[in-house]
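Problem: given the chain below (503 residues), write out its structure.
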Amino acid sequence: MSLPPIIKQMLLPEFYHHPVTEPIQLLQTHISFVLLTGDYAYKVKKPMNFGFLDFSTLEKRKYFCEEELRLNRRLAPELYLSVLPIIETDGKYHFDHPNTGISTGSPVEYAIAMPEFSQDDLLIEMFASGRLTVDHVKQIGEQLAAFHQRAETNNHINSFGTMEAVRAVANDNYASTEKYIGIAQTELQFAQTRAYTEQFFVENAALFSDRIAKGKVRECHGDMHLKNICLYQDKIQIFDCIEFNEPFRNSDVLYDAAFLLMDLQFRGRSDLANIFLNTYLESTGDYEGCVLLPLHCSMRAYIRAKVTSFLLDDPNIPADVKAIAQAEASAYYKLAWEYTQPKQGKLIIMSGVSGSGKSTTAKAIASEQDAIYLRSDAIRKQLAGIDLMQRGGDDIYTPEMTVKTYTRLAELGALLASKGFIVILDAKYDRTSLRSQAIASAQAENIPVEIIYCHASTEVLQQRLRDRAIANNDIADATVDLLTSQQNAFEDFTTDELALIQS
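Solution.
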């Protein structure tokens, strides 16, 4: 393959003013050259114009290199070091860097300098080798939540979150993929997926305006999946956000999160996807936004199907590669359709005193049944406006605050279950009035209800609470000295409630 002269010289050790590991490796995407030199990697943008991306001039490549640096430093500051001009002197190229000792000139190209990390530390490789853990997924959820809460939002960015803008993306997806009916998707899948999105926009127009009003449309990452996350210096790094296209980057925060959610589900790990989602939601409190997830996930899967389908039109792609692409596109189209299919929601109410195992049981059920998990400790602190790990004072445990907490649990539970989600309410639910509130809210929407009662001996309860206090890594504030009063205050289940209990 013919390479540009700059890239040919960047493959030579003498190009660099630091030690390199030979041979220097060259990786290519359709928009970039990436040179791996050992300690450092250098990315050079290709002079391409695809319409949605324009690197056709040196000025534009410089601008987008600087944008890539600015935007990615928000999530991965350790990975994005600098933008280096490349100068030509007597037919030889070199970095125009203060440490080179070479006189400066007019740049002929630009490169982004990054520390090199092992490709084995990409999360897609860690996933393939079974090294991706629950803890990694939780770290991603926490990092993304913190990032979204500080990401920029303004009237310009908000314009990308309007119903009209989102609908235009969906319509473009369908217009450009109708030709793949009978090749990578069925006519029924295409028709039902498109009908779902059209109906969603008709029925939920106010939801998009509400999301903008609440500041949920922000300058996000735009391309967050396992191939764009790595482990660097034992820390999760989310990198390679979209710098070249504003509409691709600026979106509802849950549309940003939906890419990784869909990616994990597509790869058969709905358990990890669920842990990621619940970690994110507990950190942000953005539970109402879940109503958008079926649409967001379907659109994310459909876009992956569309992009993969385009390979089927390329005459330069070998037949065996096309066969793989066709199967992958078909799987994405099927997943996009599955997100749109009606689902029966359910409300699961946890009950028991502190230390009885409610949260452990609830998290296991959530992972197994792909449920949204609502914990009273988190809801209470979100209502109080304090950090989840901050110990709450007496002011957040007043009777009034307890009423607010359980009312919000009941409202969220009924809302999400009515939209087809399995929802777990994790709280003591030690009083008949609190339980009946949640049950009535669900039954008013014809939602099935189940109560799971967790219990253990007093000795076990005491030990668990002591262990939790020593570990000091949980958002719950209850201590062992509260146990007796909790046990004494617990009201027996009614006959109707007993019919709903699993213990």
